[in-house]
From TrEMBL:
Gene3D superfamilies: Hotdog Thioesterase. Pfam families: MC_hydratase. InterPro entries: HotDog_dom_sf, MC_hydratase, MCH/BMMD. PANTHER family: BETA-METHYLMALYL-COA DEHYDRATASE, MONOAMINE OXIDASE-RELATED. CDD domains: FkbR2. It comes from the Bacteria. This is MaoC family dehydratase.
Length: 179
């Protein structure tokens, strides 16, 4: 097993079944994040915004709990850098598990295990990666996990490469004047 450092965008060729990819960014959830996401998604469960009512809920520890949709979205976003930066399509999510409550002020991290890799039968320039991703809070508690499959181009395809524009005034150098 190898642990890979954070880089921007991998291709089908780069994944190794059995390798763990520790995603480099963590994110602390603020009260604004939690409230805005709950309002945006029209989730009217008061355990996400009513401190008095949530205080009576023994499952949430008597605290306002972060909307689980935000937890899933945040861990997915944290994993993109390593697992699907160059993905062309999400193909499926399975086995989503919410295993520990998340509260305002928690900092979330993620890591993914490449569980399968195969070439696409219909697109010879791409392959399919399957991964198990889990989110951890600052204490190391697993808060969410799932299995996800994505279609990723092969490096030789040229897709997701060479998109940075060439500067009209030439390459950046010590001699390049400030505009």
């Amino acid at each position: 097993m190898a642990v890979h450092p954070a880089i921007l965008g991998r291709f089908f060729d780069d994944y190794v079944v059995g390798d763990v990819y520790q995603h480099p960014l963590g994110r602390t959830i603020s009260e604004a994040d939690s409230t805005w996401f709950t309002l945006l998604t029209m989730n009217t469960n008061q355990n996400h915004f009513n401190e008095h009512l949530a205080g009576q809920n023994p499952i949430t520890g008597g605290r306002v709990i972060v909307n689980s949709g935000l937890t899933v979205a945040l861990i997915l976003g944290i994993s993109v850098l390593d697992m699907s930066q160059n993905a062309m399509a999400n193909l499926g999510w399975n086995e989503i598990r919410l295993t520990h409550p998340v509260y305002v002020g928690d900092t979330l991290y993620a890591e993914s295990l490449c569980t399968a890799k195969r070439e696409s039968s219909s697109k010879p320039w791409a392959g399919i990666i399957t991964m198990r991703t889990r989110g951890l809070n600052q204490h190391g508690d697993e808060v969410v996990s799932w299995v996800r499959s994505v279609m990723i181009p092969k490096r030789e395809s040229g897709l997701s490469q060479g998109y940075f524009p060439e500067a009209k005034n030439g390459p950046l150098s010590l001699e390049t004047p400030v505009s």
